[in-house]
Amino acid sequence: MSQLNYQTAGESHGAALVVIVTGLPAGVPVDLDLINAELRRRQGGYGRGGRQRIEEDTATVLTGVRRGRSIGSPLVLQISNHDSRIDDLAKTPPVYRPRPGHADLAGSIKWLTTDCRETLERASARETASRVAAGALARCLLREFGIESFGFVRSILDAATTAAVTRENWRELRTLRDASETYCPDPAVTTAQCEIIRRAKIDKDTVGGLVETHIFGCPPGVGSCMDWTLKLDARLAYAVMGIQAFKAVEIGLGKDVAGLPGHKVHDPIRWDPTRKAEPCLGFVRDTNHAGGTEGGMTNGEAVVVRGAMKPIATLLRGMPSVDLNTKAPEMSSYERSDVCAVSAASVVVENVASFEVARCLREKFGGDSLTELKANYEKFMEYARMLPLEPPVATIA
Question: What is the phi/psi pair of residue 377, to 5°?
């Protein structure tokens, strides 16, 4: 099976979250330390709520791994919920006052009920722990090909870093990110972001922000231009837009391309023979406005995806709403929540983006085992470095 996929199951306050990954080739080292480190990062960040002090997210392998390596069968991970209370009416009473900006009202009407509880539990971002685990598992595969990812917080409200990420400095920036309470690789901006979140908490409000991921080491040609459903950039956009509270996704320059002429948008191509052995095959750019994709495929530059997260819809102060039973005006219900979850969201984006790159890599190079996959990859790279494989066809003057 050369199609890498995952499915998730479980509610916010159910007994456990379960992720089923299919299509992972046999022989991939499964690094539970990496997976659990990413789960811990998802729980962190300044502005998180009380639940993060209850849960201690760790993944347990239920099947699909032998002696630390995948065996080619569906691989199942489980993340237990310590706060399991979905059937306890004292702790999870009916919710009749929907929160503006949440799934409450639309879901209640969709399932013909006035109780928002089932909708809000399944729509909870708690589910993203499963996606982080799946993405971290995919990264176990990617690093076998030298492909690595770096995600961080670009801004919270108006406190933004201007740090430029390059293939030379991203590891240094990762160290700064890991030392930051908001996962921003800029100490001064981190301080400003923490103050914004602190003020929002005092005001019983919430704040959102912008997160960014760079994926390094992809060879050209991962993805496809032959079918719109197979375009890597489209799949990245779908994966990021599917994260709770995200309202916009950008690749490379994103929306800024609309205000620039072509010569300031497209990235000129140069040939650098000293970099022929690298994944870019020697085809280099001085800019990466395209965000590493052209025509739905990687072009040898870093893949750059950015997402905008809105402020969380659960405000401690509440917002004007109605009681779904009486239709009388009421303030919205409050459910335990965060003041700001942008830091956590940056971890989710980094991992779902990594999964989509791994999915496209898997489709291109196939194989039932990591050994076969690597052989196919290396043969492709060998052929690509030999281009042209045949003498060019003469053109008619």
Answer: -60, -50
As assigned by CATH, the class of the 5-386 domain is alpha beta
Q: Tokens representing 332?
A: 């919205």
| Residues forming a β-bridge with 65 | 70
Residue 219 and residue 279 in contact, taking contact as beta carbons nearer than 8 Å: yes
Q: How far is CA 76 from CA 10, 11, 130, in A?
A: 13, 17, 11
What angle, 0 to 180 degrees and rounded to 10, lies between the N-to-C axes of helices 342-365 and 232-241? 150
Q: Locate tokens 């991939």: which residue? A: 28
Distance CA 297, CA 295 (A): 6
Burial class (CB within 10 angstroms; exposed 0-12, middle 13-18, buried 19+) of 388: exposed
- Span 343-348, mean pLDDT? 98
84-91: which pairs have CB atoms within 8 A and are 24 or more residues apart? Answer: 84/13, 84/14, 84/15, 84/16, 85/13, 86/11, 86/12, 86/13, 86/14, 86/121
Cα gap 236→240, rounded to integer Å: 6
Segments making up each domain of the chain, as ranges? 5-386
| Rounded CA separation 251/221 (Å) | 17
Portion of the chain with pLDDT greater than 90, in percent: 87
pLDDT tens digits for range 254-291? 999 999 999 999 999 999 999 999 999 999 999 999 99
Mean pLDDT to the nearest integer, 120-143: 95
* pLDDT score of 3: 85
Q: What is residue 221's three-state secondary structure?
A: coil
Q: How far apart are the first and last CA of the chain?
A: 48
- Could you give the CA distance from residue 133 to residue 40 in angstroms, rounded to a whole number? 11
* The pLDDT value given to residue 395: 72
Q: For 90-124, b where at least 16 C-beta lie within 10 A, e where not — what string?
A: eebeebbbbbebbbbbebbeeeeeebbbbbbbebb
Element (H, E) at 6: strand 5-9
Cα 287 from Cα 70, distance rounded (Å): 38
- Residue 90 is predicted with a pLDDT of 67
Please choose, from the candidates 249, 220, 269, the residue with its C-alpha nearest in 3D space to the C-alpha of residue 383. Answer: 220
CA–CA gap between residue 116 and residue 113 (Å, rounded): 7
